[in-house]
Predict the structure.
Amino acid sequence: MASFAPIEGPCAWQGSTMADDPRWRFALSGADIAELQAAWASVQQRGLAWDQMRKADFPLAGLADKLADMAAELEDGSGLANLSGLPVGAFGAGLRHVWYGIGLHLGQPVYQDSNGLLMRDIQDESQDTDSVLGHRLTARDGSAFKSSKARTLSNALLRFHTDRCDVVGLLCVRQAPIGGISRIASSVAVHNMMLQRRPDLAALLYEPYHRARLGEERGGELLSYALPVFGQRDGRFTSHYSRTYVEAAQEMLDVPRMDAAQWEAMDMLHSLAEELCLEMTMAAGDMQFINNHVIYHARSAYQDQAGATLDQRRCLHRLWLSMPNSRALPEDHGVLWGEVAAGARRGGIVQP
């Protein structure tokens, strides 16, 4: 069995100490907000749609240092950055321009589905999303299997997972009155604790696990792919994990069945994330950025106000960002990321 060492550094944190650590908390100043308003006025005057904007169309010279500090914290620090204080009601229809503009100054937005979606609204759509989008997978016992997308677009809890991008950004537009707590765990701390308690299970997570595409990615004729949960390159860690995709692959006839130890390793990963996580509730105007290579994120179930319409329900605007200061990834992770070189444009869903 291969031997792996713990990963040291600020990315290996525990929620009990992270809650009071100021390094990942940033706030917009009055001058920052004025600069955002000026940039929005400029693109509004030109009639640019938010998804047509480029970085130069939305100048943020005054915010540059703060955003650079956030990018450094995301890649070389804790992997988490929260930017608070955006007056979401002040921008009206321009809120998407402002959010996308901030994203452009941190990284390059990448596609979130095979139809070129660059910004997803995370809210309870109260419908069978899989049927609408044609992403249905039937389990071997005949029951319906909900895709990750369908789970995201409901008010149910979301298990710890990573997204298919270097950094995921979430802007809270409206919060639910009950629940919707964001749960964030250092995958590095999870890895280190598993090495300490059960190195045999940690070693298994460095081996490939089969994942289903669930109709949400394009991969030619391949409906599944094999990818390790843990990886290292040049002393830097990466983890890509979503139990839903692994479970879905196990419903496919041509995918090797997992053994008891592999399931135990995933169970332990989840229990350690629960043990070590930070919990926080986002307020309207909070922007949360997470480096998927070193952090797992989850969400508790929530309840909107009874009778709330779609534009009154809890809503987060989500961006997937490829980061110019990203780490190099192991070569065998190319099956997911495509490009594995440091700073490469990568992630998102390949377009047909």
